[in-house]
Amino acid sequence: MDFRFTAEEEAFRQEVREFIRREMPPDWEGVFLEEEEEDWKQGRAFVKKLSQKGWVAPAWPKEYGGMEASPALQLVYNEEMGYHRAPIGSIIQAVGYIGPAILFFGTEEQKNQHLPPITAGEIVWCQGFSEPEAGSDLASLKCRAVKDGDDWVINGDKIWTSNAHRSEWCILLARTDPAAPKHKGISFFLVDMQTPGITVQPTINMANVHSFNQVFFEDVRVPSSALLGQENQGWYIAAMTLDYERSSLVAAAVSMAKRGLDDLVEYCKETKVNGRSLLDNPLVRHKLSEMAIEIEVGKYMVYRVVSQQARKEPGSIEAAVCKLYNTEMDVRLANTGIQILGLYGQLHKDSKWVRMMGRFQKSYLYAIAMVIGGGSSEIQRNIIAMRGLGLPRG
Amino acid sequence: MDLGLSEEQGLLKNAARDFLEKECPEAFVREMEEDERGYSPEFWQMMAAQGWQGIVIPEQYGGTGMTFTDLIVLLEEFGRALVPGPFISTVVLGAMPILEAGTEEQKQQFLPKIATGDLIVTLALTEPSAKWDADGVAMPAKANGDSFVLNGTKLFVPDAHVTDYMLVAARTKESASPEDGITLFLVDSKSKGIEFTVLKTIAEDKQCEVAFNEVRVPKANVLGEVDKGWPIIQGVKSKAAVAACAYLVGLSQMDFDTSLDYAKERIQFGRPIGSFQAIQHKFADMIIDVDGSRFITYKAAWALQENEPDAEMLVSMAKAWCNEATRRVVAHGQQIHGGIGFTKDYKIELYFRRQKWMELMWGDADYHRELVAAKLEA
Ligand SMILES: Cc1cc2nc3c(=O)[nH]c(=O)nc-3n(C[C@H](O)[C@H](O)[C@H](O)COP(=O)(O)OP(=O)(O)OC[C@H]3O[C@@H](n4cnc5c(N)ncnc54)[C@H](O)[C@@H]3O)c2cc1C
Ligand SMILES: Cc1cc2nc3c(=O)[nH]c(=O)nc-3n(C[C@H](O)[C@H](O)[C@H](O)COP(=O)(O)OP(=O)(O)OC[C@H]3O[C@@H](n4cnc5c(N)ncnc54)[C@H](O)[C@@H]3O)c2cc1C
């Protein structure tokens, strides 16, 4: 039991912190994912600078542009990125779980083709898993891939595909054996978004932003090199990527929550009501204190996962526990932020009256997405109960 | 950074679990609830033979010189087994402040005997005002010749009636700041003028009313300096709060484990109740609360041990969180057990009652949240 970081890790923390301060766009709002056009461009420019440092994918092998960083060093990196709200939304999916899937299951050729462009900050990937009829029950997906000579021909609809309109490549789950049980007839593909037959149609989210899309595949012909892993092994690969997805986002998210709280505390200190600081209000104190505690608890859930990885202990439900707790905590934090701002809490960032750049207004909307995406809270609870605790299926 | 147990801690934990499963079964816990003393001298001596009372006492005073986080690992097992008796009182409330603030003579006098299980100690802090803060210490101690004379009432004093000595906090000076003017006395529990009354509590643990009537304490028995006892007490309070957290972690883990076993076995509607999603999701929430409690407790314990600047804030965070999280766990534990949970025939109710005890000790959630807020303000 030792909560101290090594001198090397602390030095890296300082280096990352200074880098972010230097390279962050001026007046950066620090939204969760840079989805609006201007933010997206600034985010991509920032990733390019990260790439010059070799810092796009700390966990990856050096030969593909990574750092082979230890779990603790990755944690330090994620904490700093999160706390400073660094604009790395465009690489989270590729670095967090798409790259790792290719690393584990890809051929030499696939690795060489796909990984370096990610660490070079050149290529954006999206995830084509969900379908209109296959959300939580992902394995019931209907999108079909049929073998035709050496090629595969894909037909079907994907939905909620984040960043599809900005992506060069897409990971895609499609059914390759309709006769097999539903988990056993799915394959995992790497699809070039320029391939003829792909149509991307925007969906506007409730924050009034074009963040995700519906993607239609009509007789889309891809080569045999598009298949990742074995035919019909797709569910297995997807399950692993979903595990990675759960843990990759959370470390940064907890630090981002901490930043939100720190800003809120500052705001309350400076804001005077009837000559007294907001922090003197017992109800406000209570709320802030409660959030400070909840964030601290979430932090050590992340640390526990990292410790396990460092000890090379097999994890089971810890990543699900982490995702479930922290995304639900973010929902509460956003609400606390808005409540403390009172009527001002509802204002959009463009309003001249806005306070705290409207961050809580925005995170209040986006926090709702995080308890659904990446496996909803209910699905996490199911995983914990059945996979983790061995409770019988209903 | 590593949240796992060290090899030594792993061994300690396993040894403690084996020992307690054998020596501290449910029947013993229930027996001690009925017992007027609340502990058994035989069991106390067996624990001493394990070296537990001396776990944080340095070897030069007869202990094993392990760390505070080691003690926390042990206390987690105590919570799991619901170990009754004056262990936390003696070790955390007694030995630790003597070790920190005692003179060499006092250390020699008390610590070796504590380590061998020959001395039981507690701290008499709270009074009928039931406050944990310095202004809760109102009982006067008046200098008189080579003694101080104590008059007043201490309330909610853990295990006082079985102690050999008590550390008693009393007011020796009135001043503008309540933290100034408190003195800690090492009081022989058999001194003339002391009267103990055991309180009937929800957990059937043994807290006492201790009445002091013209009790004379030699000046040599002051721990630390006259009027300057509060910082010592603050140190004790922090450690005691984390000790309570560790007990709650073990207790809630065991409540969880017991409920999980029950839900896998109990059949209703032709299937185990653990197959109903309403029950499954309770378990997911429970494990979050147990794990959340465990790691914030470890962090607070480690921060105290290492004298980290934010240690006190972390202690308050841990206690505030554990108080409410473990209450949620034991409430679910009751619900999952249905009717049987409401009886004395089955162990789950023990966890439910004891959780409330430890929740209230050393500050409830509102109290600690306010301390956290004060630190946020700083
Ligand atoms: C912002 C955002 C971005 C996304 N980006 C992508 C992306 O890039 N690529 C991609 O493929 N997908 C993406 N998704 C989709 C996401 O993975 C799905 O929304 C998610 O899997 C839930 O599916 P659904 O929306 O169809 O809801 P449903 O599965 O219909 O669920 C509706 C409700 O029923 C509950 N429920 C369902 N099954 C159970 C059960 N067995 N037990 C208890 N409760 C249950 C759910 O928890 C939920 O509360 C994104 C989603 C969001 C919100
Ligand atoms: C104080 C007290 C007085 C009582 N007095 C009487 C009395 O006078 N006469 C009498 O006949 N009975 C009496 N009862 C019994 C009472 O009716 C039962 O305790 C109650 O019906 C629950 O049954 P059980 O205890 O067997 O729990 P179980 O049915 O085993 O339930 C255990 C847990 O599983 C849950 N569960 C069970 N089925 C489902 C499901 N389908 N979906 C989701 N969750 C489920 C329950 O909600 C509970 O949390 C009394 C009980 C108490 C506590």
What would you say this structure looks like, in words?
The complex is a heterodimer of chains A (394) and B (378). Chain A is an alpha+beta fold. Chain A folds into three domains: 7-90, Acyl-CoA dehydrogenase/oxidase, N-terminal domain (Butyryl-Coa Dehydrogenase, subunit A, domain 1, Orthogonal Bundle), CATH 1.10.540; 126-235, Butyryl-CoA Dehydrogenase, subunit A, domain 2, CATH 2.40.110.10; 252-388, Up-down Bundle (Butyryl-CoA Dehydrogenase, subunit A, domain 3), CATH 1.20.140.10. Helix content of chain A is 47%, strand content 15%. A four-stranded mixed beta sheet of chain A has the order 1-4-5-8. The mean pLDDT of chain A is 94. A four-stranded mixed beta sheet of chain B has the order 1-4-5-8, with helices on one face. A four-stranded antiparallel beta sheet of chain B has the order 2-3-7-6, with no helix packed on it. In chain B, strands 9-10 form a two-stranded antiparallel sheet. By secondary structure, chain B is α+β, with helices and mostly antiparallel strands. Chain B contains eleven helices and ten strands. Classes of the chains: A alpha+beta (394), B alpha+beta (378). At the A-B interface, helix 7, helix 8 and helix 10 of A face helix 7, strand 10, helix 8, helix 9 and helix 11 of B. Bound molecules: flavin-adenine dinucleotide (2 copies). One flavin-adenine dinucleotide (FAD) binds next to strand 1, strand 3 and helix 10 of chain A.
Quick structural summary:
Chain A has 394 residues and is of the alpha+beta class. Chain A is built from 10 helices and 10 strands.
